[in-house]
Design brief:
- The complex is a heterodimer.
- By secondary structure, chain A is an alpha+beta fold.
- In chain A, the strands form four sheets. Chain A has a four-stranded antiparallel beta sheet. In chain A, strands 3-8-4-6 form a four-stranded antiparallel beta sheet, with helices on one face.
- Among the domains of chain A are: about 45-180, DNA-directed RNA polymerase, insert domain (RNA Polymerase Alpha Subunit, Chain A, domain 2, Beta Complex), CATH 2.170.120.12; about 200-255, Alpha-Beta Plaits (2-Layer Sandwich), CATH 3.30.70.
- In chain A, β10 (about 220-225) and β11 (about 230) form a beta hairpin.
- Chain A has helices spanning about 30-45, 65-70, 140-145, 200, 205-215, 245-250, 280-295, 305-310, 310-315; strands at about 10-15, 20-25, 45-60, 105-110, 120, 125, 155, 160-170, 185-195, 220-225, 230, 255-270.
- Chain A is built from nine helices and twelve strands.
- The mean pLDDT of chain A is about 85.
- The radius of gyration of chain A is 27 Å and the shape is flat.
- By secondary structure, chain B is an alpha+beta fold.
- Chain B folds into four domains: about 120-165 and about 285-410, Dna-directed Rna Polymerase Ii 140kd Polypeptide, Chain: B, Domain 6, CATH 2.40.270; about 165-280, OB fold (Dihydrolipoamide Acetyltransferase, E2P) (Beta Barrel), CATH 2.40.50.150; about 420-470, DCoH-like (Alpha-Beta Complex); about 475-525, Alpha-Beta Complex (DCoH-like).
- Helix content of chain B is about 20%, strand content about 25%.
- Chain B has helices spanning about 30-40, 75-80, 90-95, 155-160, 335-345, 370-375, 415-420, 450-455, 460-470, 515-525, and strands at about 45, 60, 65-70, 115-120, 125, 130-140, 150-155, 165-175, 175-180, 180-185, 185, 195, 215, 220-225, 225-230, 245, 250, 255-265, 270-280, 290, 295-305, 310, 320, 385, 390, 400-410, 475-480, 485-490, 495, 505-510.
- In chain B, α5 packs parallel to α6.
- The longest helix of chain B is centred in the middle third of the chain and has 15 residues, at about 335-345.
- The radius of gyration of chain B is 34 Å and the shape is elongated.
- The interface of A and B includes residues 188 and 261 of A.
- Chain A: This is DNA-directed RNA polymerase RpoA/D/Rpb3-type domain-containing protein.
- Chain A: Its main location: nucleus.
- Chain A: Keywords: Acetylation, DNA-directed RNA polymerase, Nucleus, Transcription.
- Chain A: InterPro entries: DNA-dir_RNA_pol_30-40kDasu_CS, DNA-dir_RNA_pol_insert, DNA-dir_RNA_pol_RpoA/D/Rpb3, RBP11-like, RNAP_Rpo3/Rpb3/RPAC1, RNApol_insert_sf, Rpo3/RPB3_RNA_Pol_subunit.
Chain lengths: ~325, ~525
């Protein structure tokens, strides 16, 4: 077994990249790898989120726990979360939040002095560290139109009501609490392979073709207006719903089309909460995966542990 | 108000009447809706029929009035039957369950001092007083943690606030008058002059004997301090130091929370009255009970994070996974219809001109068939199924999963209020067996069937441990001569059988205290059960 290698060389092709959205292809690897990447993006890429709230004054209609929960769910810019420390591992502080390595302090001070309802939003949270601030969802175009973007509403205050608090944000992962998850949506699909039996399809009347094409809820197939041939317009629109297969069966034409899922190519869609960029989310996830593998990887001098790890040991030694 | 389906299940079965203070009692109701429906089913109105036609149809009578004729009454009745969408007993179950649901019945709940109150952080809909949330429900067999009416809930959704609720519990007490001169008083009991103080924390009380609002309180902390004066002659041995007796109220031992509000007022009798409202947040956890609006209740069997949940190609993970076996025998088609129609309404593009309508029944033209077509046009599998992927492996699930939004209510039965265990604790005075009940810190009954189980396993020693050593183990000395219990002084190592008047030939036996009790009671009846070893 020594020296035997299962190493593959996955390829990534980026299709679309925006700040909070990424779409890419992952090829030449297994579903286990694709799924590990998905799971890590959702649950194990660290971000910063409010974890401790000290309320000084709260005369609003919402109780303290309610406000603390809402504060926790506000996404904070977490570009430096990877290099921060978990407060449980931090030896520079005793977890009181005054430490520059593991926590960021926020202050909120709002009081309504007018008859108009005051919206307390994430913009009212004053951060002690300019790198960690509430995510700005403000559409730049909205500023010009005078429509003020006020961030995420925390609570509304009436005349005389007041909210004063100190909050401490810490590094964490989505597995511990969903507020630390940087991912809004992470999903992948198996690239489908669609084979139309041209001979059988050619024997169908135009009406039959039309009915068959329309049996798919998503627009996967269409009829070429010139040739009258059924063509695949968007195979990735296929959701593995089997509707076209059932329709073919119902028409008495089983085998009209054959659809397989490719086992080794995946199309990922990643949306971020804004805490980190979608592209960074993918990179961080790979980094976290590598760290996890490092934790189990065996060095050359622990070959004796092969009893325990067997084939895997050789594999992990870089075979 | 009387509901045709609401009834208690079982013994107290029968219609339920509720008469409110401002009730207006009606006799009968307008038949317009029924007439409209019948007209849609080809009823020929009495005004439109010619004398010759009468004989050709069957008379239709509504509320005692002849309204018209129908040519094909069989078909009409069949159609009417088809309008029913679920087993009516499910309506009955829902009527019973609605009473256990969390809800708002007054909007001033922040000020009210009601005994127990449950409330959602967020809700999507309220039907009269019941609060509902729109959960994304998948009907699937996944991981096996949703067998037999249990459900799997998405922990990430819970973290984000799904079914998070508030629990208010109000404690009250008053300064009762004892006799004409003596009166109880609120105040912090002082260990130096108060007797009967318990081994719990009195530190959270202010000088006035009440907790301050905003204080965190946990198991058995005293929240209302109250003492009564003790007459000096009654307080026997402790007369010198103790002038007062403790009558404080502490939190129930299983509860924790924050003091929300403290109210001090005067009761109708002119006595000082205090109410303390304690608030806690109830986050859904394993064992909590939830229900849809179709009598489909279930407890949480497991919570999974988003990454472990099955997902659709769009990245949707369900909030709740139900077991498919909950449906065939109960025939709650209504829930499936609610789900599929909800799904259509979620994705449909509605505007002011094109407002959502319909109820999935045959009464409107938005029936199930049309929902299928609408879903298909929106790009979804028309029966509401979706291909899903296993969260653990990333592989496609072999079956397609029915998934969509469904209203769910949270019921008041929560694991936190019921969880109980005991290692050691109080025993009954009479039998010296462990007491019963969670509130008293009692034992958990090891009943006949459990006993049978251990017998059939042949685990005799464990059985003895259960029923004897961990229950009411006791030891007596028996006179070998007469077989009756003798008195013993183990310190002096002296024994005496009063009947035989001998001091030797004794044997020590280990018996349950309950057996010792029975022997003594039989003796009192003139029966002498003798123990020979």
């Amino acid at each position: 077994m020594e020296g035997m290698s299962y190493q593959r060389f996955p390829k990534v092709k980026i299709r679309e990249l925006k700040d909070d959205y990424a779409k890419f292809e992952l090829r030449d690897t297994d579903s286990s790898v694709a799924n590990a990447l998905r799971r890590v993006m959702i649950a194990e890429v660290p971000t910063v989120a409010i974890d401790l709230v000290e309320i000084e004054v709260n005369s609003s209609v919402l109780n303290d726990e309610f406000i603390a929960h809402r504060l926790g769910l506000i996404p904070l810019t977490s570009d430096n979360a990877m290099s921060m420390r978990f407060s449980r591992d931090c030896d520079a502080c005793d977890g009181d939040g005054q430490c520059e390595y593991c926590s960021v302090e926020f202050h909120l001070n709002a009081k309504c002095r007018t008859d108009q309802t005051l919206d307390v939003t994430s913009k009212d949270l004053i951060s002690a560290d300019h790198r960690v601030t509430p995510v700005d969802f403000g559409d730049p175009a909205a500023y010009d139109s005078g429509d003020q973007q006020r961030g995420i509403i925390i609570v509304k205050l009436r005349r005389g009501q007041e909210l004063r608090l100190r909050a401490i944000a810490r590094k964490g992962i989505g597995k511990d609490h969903a507020k630390w998850s940087p991912a809004a949506t992470v999903t992948f699909m198996y690239e489908p392979e669609i084979h139309i039996n041209e001979e059988m399809m050619g024997n169908l009347t135009l009406e039959e073709k039309k009915a068959w094409v329309e049996s798919s809820p998503t627009r996967v197939f269409d009829i070429d207006p010139n040739t009258g041939q059924v063509v695949v317009v968007d195979r990735e629109a296929y959701t593995y719903d089997d509707e076209v297969l059932k329709k073919a069966e119902a028409m008495g034409k089983p085998g009209l089309v054959e659809i397989y899922a490719k086992e080794d190519s995946f199309i990922f869609t990643v949306e971020s909460t804004g805490a980190i960029k979608a592209s960074q989310l993918v990179l961080n996830a790979i980094e976290v995966l590598k760290q996890k593998l490092d934790a189990v990887r065996l060095s050359e001098d622990t070959v004796e542990a092969d009893d325990q790890f067997g084939e895997l040991g050789a594999h992990m030694r870089g075979g | 108000m009387m509901c045709p389906v609401e009834t208690p299940v079982g013994k107290a079965c029968g219609p339920v009447k509720n008469v409110a203070l401002m009730v207006h009692i009606t006799v009968g109701s307008a038949p317009d809706l029924i007439l409209d429906c019948l007209k849609n089913l080809e009823l020929k109105d009495i005004e439109d029929i010619s004398p010759g036609e009468r004989a050709k149809g069957t008379k239709i009578i509504v509320n005692g009035f002849w309204v018209g004729i129908h040519r094909d009454p069989d078909k009409m009745v069949k159609t009417l039957r088809n309008l029913r969408r679920r087993h009516s007993i499910r309506n009955t179950y829902q009527s019973a369950m609605g009473k256990q649901a969390m809800g708002i019945y007054a909007t001033n709940y922040q000020l009210r001092m009601v005994c127990i109150w449950l409330l959602f952080f967020f809700y999507d809909l309220s039907v009269s007083v019941i609060l509902l949330q729109n959960a994304i429900v998948a009907i699937a067999s996944y991981s096996g943690y949703n067998q037999g009416d249990s459900i799997i809930m998405n922990q990430s959704s819970i973290d984000r606030g799904l079914f998070r609720s508030l629990y208010f519990h109000t404690y009250k007490d008053e300064e009762k008058r004892m006799g004409t001169l003596v009166k109880e008083t609120f105040g912090r009991p002082d260990r130096s002059n108060t007797m009967g103080m318990r081994h719990v924390s009195y530190d959270k009380l202010d000088d006035d004997g009440l907790v301050c609002h905003g204080t965190r309180v946990s198991c058995e902390d005293v929240i209302i301090g109250k003492t009564t004066p003790v007459a000096q002659d009654k307080a026997q041995g402790q007369a010198s130091c103790c002038t007062r007796r403790d009558r404080s109220i502490s939190l129930r031992h299983s509860e924790t929370g924050t003091v929300d509000q403290v109210m001090l007022t005067t009761s109708a009798d002119g006595l000082r009255l205090v109410k303390v409202k304690v608030r806690s947040v109830r986050i859904p956890q394993i064992g909590d009970k939830f229900s849809s609006m179709h009598g489909q209740k279930g407890t949480v069997g497991m919570t999974f994070g988003q990454e472990d949940m099955p997902w659709t190609v769009e990245g949707i993970t369900p909030d709740i996974i139900l077991n498919p076996h909950s449906f065939p025998s109960r025939m709650t088609v209504g829930q499936l219809m609610e789900c599929i129609m909800g799904k259509e309404k979620v994705f449909a593009h509605y505007s002011e001109e094109n407002e959502p309508y319909g109820d999935a029944t045959l009464f409107t033209d938005l029936n199930v068939e049309n929902i299928f077509n609408a879903l298909h046009k929106l790009g979804y599998q028309k029966h509401g199924f979706e291909t899903m992927y296993n969260g653990d492996t990333g592989r496609r699930l072999p079956a397609m999963i029915f998934i969509g939004p469904t209203y769910y209510q949270r019921l008041k039965h929560m694991a936190e209020d019921k969880i109980h265990s005991r290692a050691r604790g109080p025993v009954q005075i009479l039998t010296r067996q462990p007491v019963e009940g969670r509130a008293r810190g009692g034992g958990i009954r090891f009943g006949e069937m459990e006993r049978d189980c251990l017998i059939s396993h042949g685990s005799a020693l464990y059985l003895k441990d259960m029923l004897f050593d961990r229950s009411d183990a006791y030891r007596v000395h028996v006179c070998k001569h007469c077989g009756l219990m003798a008195s013993a002084d183990l310190e002096k190592n002296s024994f005496l059988c009063k009947g035989c008047n001998i001091r030797t030939n004794m044997v020590q036996v280990h018996i349950p205290y309950a057996w010792k009790l029975l022997v003594q009671e039989l003796k009192a009846l003139g029966i002498a059960p003798r123990m020979f070893t």
